[in-house]
Amino acid sequence: MNAFPQPARGFPLRAALCACLLFCGCAHPRLPQMPDMSLAGVETASIKDRSIVIDPGHGGPERGATGVRGLTEAEVNLTVALHLWGLLKQAGARPVLTRSADQALHAGAEFDIRTDLELRARQAMDTGADLFVSIHHNAAPDRSVNTLIVFYAMADPYCSRDAALAVGEALQHRLGRKSHSIRPGNYTVLRSNRSPAILGEASFISSPANEMDLAFARTLAAEARGYFDGILAYFSRGVPALSELGPVTPDADDGRPVLRACLDPGHAGAQVEPASITATINGAPVRQFSLNHNCLEFTSPQLPNGSHRACAAFRSTRGNSAQRCVDFRVDLPPHSMALSSSFAVLPPDPAASTGIDVVVLDRLGRPVADGTPVAIAASAGRLLQADTVTAGGRARAVLAAGPRPDTATISATSGSASGRMQVSFAVPAAALLCLSVRAAGGQPVGGVVLMSGGRTLGSSDSQGHIRAETEAGRNRFQLIKAGYEPCELMLSPAAGAMTYGDAVLQPVDGGVFINRTVMLDPEGESPAALPVLDALKNKIEHAGGRAPFTWRSDPAPSYQARVMLASREKADVFLCVSAQGRQCRAGHYQRSAAGRELARHLQDALPAGGFFGRTKCAVYHSTHDAVIQTAMPAIELQLPRKFAQGGDSESAAQAIYAALRQWLAERSPQMP
Fold first, then answer.
1. Distance between CA atoms of 432 and 344, rounded to whole angstroms?
2. Whole-angstrom Cα distance, residue 122 to residue 195?
3. CA angle 633-445-572, nearest 5°?
4. CATH classification of 336-341+353-425, choosing from 3.40.190.290, 2.60.40.10, 3.90.1150.10, 3.30.420.40?
5. Strands (E), 126-174
6. Are 340 and 357 in contact (CB under 8 A)?
7. CA–CA distance, 171 with 88 (Å, rounded to integer)
8. Which fold would CATH assign to domain 431-506?
9. Which pTM was predicted?
10. Distance from the Cα of residue 599 to its chain's centroid
C-alpha cells in the first residue's frame, strides 16, 4: 500500500528521491517492526473448522475515516482483514470475508449504509459463524488521541465480551501499546448479530504519526496477528454452552413451571464455576436453583398466561462464559367464563345492536393466554361479528336485534368452560346511544371515552363503536382520547329507542406523535433536566405519543442499560438532556442524517442567549455513548441551567416539542 502521493510527471527523479528521504528521515525515523507471521509450533486445534466472519469496515463509496495525508480507513481495514484471513486459513479455520475488494455489500442504485451494515451481520447468520470480527480504525478531532478499543455486542456480555477481552490483550501486545479498553457496543453489525460479535478500533487513523505507521504493510500484518492471537486464545479456553434449556413442566397447574438447563464448560480441562451461575425469568433474577451433574433446575415464580423468557448463564474455570435464553409459554386452560352485554334490552329493530363481551379465566382466576379459541352463538337475532380467539382474556361479539320481540340466548364455550346470558328484544326503559367514532382519515378509533355531565358512560371498541345507556332529552356529550382534540356532540336520546351518531376526531398537531415513542434520558446522574423533561412528557402524551424515562430515581443506570431499554421500548428517538452551564448545544451522531436534521430543528427552536436572544443553539458531532450506540436517532441536548428553572422549563419544553413535531412531520407526513 502506498500512502504517499506520486511525484508529478516530469518531476526530476533526484529531487523526488531527496524530498522523499528528507520527509521520511525527519518525520518518521523508524520503520515498524516486522511481525512474526509464522504459525510453526503454535497449537491451533481449537480453531480448526471454526467459522469466523471477518468484516473489513466500510468500502466502496463509504470510505470511513481519512488521515491527514489521505490514507482511508476502508483500505487499511481491508488489508488487515486479508492478512487475518490468511492466518486463520493456515490454522485450519473457515474464515469468511464480508468483502475482499474495495466495494460495498449493498449493490443498489443508491447506496444505503444501514442496508450495507445489516448485510454484513447477515453473513454471520447465513454461515452459522462461531465469531464475527469487524475491523475498523478510529478518528477523533484531537489528533493526539491514539487509543486501542475493542467493542463487544452490548446484548451479549458473555461470549462476545470474552472474545473482546482476549483480542484486546493480544492487540496490545502485538502493537506494543501501553493499554487498551473493552467497551460494550451497539453498532448495527453488533446488535444485528446472533453470533458472538466484536468490533476492533486498533488505532486512530486521525493521528498523523499513527497514519504513517498504518501506511506500512508490516504494521497491518502485526495488527492482523494480534487479532489472530486473540481469537486463538479465546477458542483455546473452550467455548462454554448451555443445552436443553426450557420448562420440564410446561403444564404446571399453579403457573410455576420448573425449568432445566445443562451446562457444558466447553473444555476437557474446565469445570463449571458454581458461583458464576445466574438464572432469570423475564429479566428478574431467580435466587433458588439446584445443580446436579452440571444440570441446572429452577422453579419460576407464578407467571401469567402467555409468553415468557428464561435465561441462564455461567462461567467456566478457564475464564470463558456463556448465556442462553429461551422463550416459553404458560397456557393454563380455560376454567370459567362470564358474559356481559352493553344493553340488556334492545329495540326489536335489526339496525339496533349490542356488544357481547366474553371474559375467559383460568383456574387461578387469571385471563387465559391470548389466542385461546372461543365459540360464540346466539339463539335469536344475528351475530354481526364474533371474535374467535381471546385478547387479554376477552372475546367480543356484536349482536343485532331481531325484527320482532324475542329473547336471545347467547352462549360461549372455550375448552371445558362455558357460559350464557340473555338479551331481550323489546322496548327498553332507558335511552340507548350508539356512536361511531373515526379519525379524520376514516379509520375507527378505539379507546375513546364518552362523557356527559362529568360521568363516564363508556368507551369505544376496536371498531370505534360506543354503546351506552344515557338520560333522555337533549344532552351535551364529550369524546376524549389522548392524541385527539376533545370533541363535543349535542344529541337528544329518546327513552325506549336507540339514537345513532357519528363523530370525527381531529388529531393533535396533525397526529405526528400518535404511536410514536420518545425516550427521555436525564443526562449523567443529575436530575437537573427533569422539570423540562416532565413538561415535555406531558406535551408528547397529550399529543398521543409515549415518553418513558430511562430513569428518575437514584441510582442512575449505566448508559448500556439506557440504550438497551430504548431498544426494548422500540423508541423512535432518544433524547439525552442536561441542564447545566450557560451553553445550548445539540449533538448528534455524525453518521446519522436523521439525527442531524433533528439537531438543526432544535438549533432553530432553542436560541442560546435565551428565548429572546439572537445566538442560536450550536450543533455538533456528539461522541456520547448513549448517542452513538442507540439503534434509533439520538440527540445529546445541553441546555443552559436557567432553562430548567421556573417558567423557562415550560418554554424550553415547548420549543423542544415544536422541533420534534416538525421533524416527525417531515419523516411521516401522512395523517393517521
1. 11
2. 10
3. 5
4. 2.60.40.10
5. 131-138, 149-153
6. yes
7. 16
8. Immunoglobulin-like (2.60.40)
9. 0.86
10. 21
For the chain, what percent of residues have pLDDT higher than 90?
A: 80
pLDDT tens column, 639-667: 988 877 666 889 899 999 999 999 999 98
The DSSP code sequence of 602-639 is HHHH-BTT-TT-SSBPEEEE---HHHHS-SS-EEEEEE
From the list 414, 400, 375, 657, the residue with the least C-alpha distance to 537 is 657
> What is the rounded distance in angstroms from the CA atom of residue 434 to the CA atom of residue 612?
51
Run of H or E including 522: strand 518-522
pLDDT tens, position by position, 553-608: 889 999 999 999 999 999 999 999 999 888 899 999 988 999 999 999 999 998 75
Whole-number Å distance between alpha carbons of 281 and 310: 5
**Domain ranges across the chain:** 37-236, 241-330, 336-341+353-425, 431-506, 518-667
> Within 13 Å of residue 563, how many CA atoms lie on the same side as its CB?
23
Report whether CATH 3.40.630.40 matches the domain 518-667: yes
Q: Rounded to whole angstroms, what are the CA distances from 526 to 98, 437, 521, 536, 556?
A: 43, 44, 10, 17, 8
Architecture (CATH level 2) of domain 37-236: 3-Layer(aba) Sandwich (3.40)
Q: Class of 241-330 per CATH? A: mainly beta
